[in-house]
Amino acid sequence: xxxxxxxxxxxxxxxxxxxxxxxxxxxxxxxxxxxxxxxxxxxxxxxxxxxxxxxxxxxxxxxxxxxxxxxxxxxxxxxxxxxxxxxxxxxxxxxxxxxxxxxxxxxxxxxxxxxxxxxxxxxxxxxxxxxxxxxxxxxxxxxxxxxxxxxxxxx
Length: 155
Fold this sequence. Notes:
Layout: H1 2-12, H2 14-24, H3 26-52, H4 54-61, H5 70-100, H6 105-110, H7 112-126, H8 129-150
């Protein structure tokens, strides 16, 4: 069991090593921040458009509620609007996370604990879109270190 825990800790330790790599080569941070910054801008633009058009979208989704009492109709409209925004944000967080994670399945299967040690904190940090912009370059560097370790290459 100590081997699994040690592997998990070794995986988690890659994030600080990635930060060190970025600190030594600051240009890598800018390069690594470009994809999540673009994704965040697109997601924010979509969210703003949906919020600005929310009343029209909700009216289109709930024509059945027009014949109901005004209080009940308004309640349904608010619930649908909140569900729509909440669902959109959830899809954005999941999409952001999926877009920022790489796969190296064959090598990862052999070192699951190390991969999970890296992936769990990375996933949690990248699930926060604005934090993800800062973490993505670090995670990219750390993921490169992980991939090289898993493939037996020098790090």
